Amino acid sequence: MIGTQKADENRPQIDATVANILVGYNWLSDQREVAVGMSGGLPQPIPITEMVSYYEVFKPMTGIKHFTRVVRAADMEFLKLKSEKMQQKTAKNGQQNTPSPSGSVFPQAPTG
Q1: Sign of the CA dihedral 27, 31, 37, 40?
Q2: DSSP for 97-111?
Q3: What radius of gyration do the chain's Cα atoms show?
Q4: Does residue 32 contact residue 43 with C-beta atoms inside 8 Å?
Q5: Distance CA 30, CA 54 (A)
Q6: Which of 35, 81, 92, 105 has its CA 20 to 30 A from that of 12?
Q7: Is pLDDT larger for residue 99 or for residue 20?
Q8: Burial of 32 by CB count in 10 Å (0-12 exposed, 13-18 middle, 19+ buried)?
Q9: Residue 89 to residue 85: CA distance in whole angstroms
């Protein structure tokens, strides 16, 4: 019982605002679209319209600018990690896919 008490004392305290944003991010992340290509599936960014809709329905305990900024930052980090994993996987399989400036390993349509 003493070990449990000590663990409870050392448990990090998560701010309620941060917890609300994390719940929103997790919910939005589960709803994201995935682009499928030769290398497999690559998750797409959470659209800002989805973030705003979530905010309007659930009213997290923060302003909309702060909510969208934190969700977007978490989303960009998640996408960066997924892209790196995809690059490692394709390099391991002998394929040559390099990320575009957007972070996607899929070929980009020509511009101009």
Answers
A1: positive
A2: ----TTS-SSPPPP-
A3: 19
A4: yes
A5: 13
A6: 81
A7: 20
A8: middle
A9: 6
pTM of the full predicted structure?
Answer: 0.67
Residue 8 — pLDDT band, cuts 50, 70, 90?
A: confident
Among 6-10, 28-32, 53-57, 80-84, the least confident range:
6-10
Q: How far is CA 3 from the centre of its chain?
A: 35
Question: β-pairing, 34-37 with 40-43?
Answer: antiparallel
Going from N- to C-terminal start, the domains of the chain cover 14-85
Q: Which helix or strand (DSSP H or E) is residue 47 part of?
A: none
- Return the amino acid letter for 25: Y
Instruction: Note the pLDDT tens digit of each residue in 39-68.
Output: 667 789 999 999 999 999 999 889 999 999
Kindly state the average pLDDT of the residues 21-36.
Answer: 89
User: What sign has the CA pseudo-torsion 99, 101, 106, 111?
Assistant: negative
**C-alpha–C-alpha distance, residues 98 and 105, integer Å:** 6
